[in-house]
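Write out the 3D structure for:
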Amino acid sequence: MVFPGHFSSGCLRCRQRKVKCDEGKPRCQRCYKYGKPCLGYTDEFQFRHSSQKTRSHSTSSSTASTVSTDSTTSPPPTKEKKPEDASPKPVRKRVGASPHRNSLAIVRHPTKSYDDVSLCYFVRRFVSPDDGDGFPGHFSFLPGLYNHYKDGLLETATLSVAQLAAYNHLGGEELRTQSLRNYGRVIKGLQESIRSDHQAVDDAVIATILLLCTYKDFSGEGLGDPNEHAPGLFYLLEKRGPSQIGTRRGAELFLLALLRLQIYSFLHGDDTYTDPGAIATVIGIFDPLLRAMSMMSRTLSLRHRLCWFMQSNVPRQDVDSPSVASQRSTGSDEEHILIQECFDMLDSFNVWDHEAATYWQSTFEGRGIPTLLGEMGSGKMHYDAETACIIVLVRSARLILLQTMLLYQATQQSFEEEEGYDYGALWAESLPLLESDVRKTIDDMLASVPYALGDIDPSGMPATMIHDGAAAIIIVHSIRLVTHCAYATPSQTERAEIILTRMNSAI
């Protein structure tokens, strides 16, 4: 078997269209301009049998050699041969044998199963590599937990998510059908596993639920789906207790699960499941990474309480009754305390920025160091993808608190003035600072995105990251928050919408 020559190295779609490919990696720009997704590249080699050509060449060489020998060497005296003896009888055998050789020349290219193609695409695009320093990624534990020789819950859930991801990218109704079937099998098996105390606390069960949440992202059902997995996830995290963060895999599982619970809390306005077992709050005293997650949970709780006060104002016509006056007095005191807690929370974010820099330097060598508010876009520091994702998440929590406080001030100001509650002096000093912090927070988030998606490497150079889908899943809700922020500038909103479009295509 020999390689017949040079074949096109362009992408599959350009080869189908018979146009020249610019061979951009991982996707070519020609397909992007054409308006169709790039189907990627293949490393297939085409082979053909060379038996016929080799035999023909050997026969010709043998004949030429014989003629050359006869012309230079005198043959020994022999009897004269009859004319019919010199007839080329072997030619008939070659003609008769040619159909057999032609049948051997038909080579079928090996085909990969849909399962293998789906798994390879999912791992390549949505699983971040394990850098070995303990910094949490996105499903970086999955290759070590997945067993190719088993058909357990984790393996079936991984296959279901991978098939749906491949369907979104490549199409093919069979992929979608198989994905739905596997999803149903996982749901049924998961209900049985949770009934067992031993199986319920296994890493594979938590990983399976996280994969099902990712399935919701891929299917487009992750926004406000009432059938979320938050209650079950919260129950299992509490059951596993603080010891679950004692291993690298357990810590990453906990952080990813906690992030899912916080997203659920924000979308549904329900802070019931934000801090299972108060694990992040307690351990966060010693670990700034967990403290950041705890601060996000507390922010969501403050937001929920502020929204409750905004929605539960006593009607003005009943303000003269003694009971209403008493409620107003009590509510006013509670609101004072709540507003002070919100300002204290903003101070906590500033303190975290300082402490996180020291923690990163001593714990995660070689990674970018978190900066103070408003310094991300200065270009003085460059970041790895994982650190950039954490910065986006922490800044998004600050943004949630800032815009909730501004919304509270806007809705309460007129009512407070009419009823004689003078908070104007306090808000007059704080309002410009809050609005300025909103813009700085959004600038930091948008400046972090190119690092998170791998468009810029940790040295500050342009790059391409294969697993950009992993980062997109983690920060997509944070960027969506920017697009709906009433206090963002038009240019910030426009940039966020462009980024969000790219993330949605990646997911």
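Residues 310 and 412 are 7 Å apart (CA to CA).
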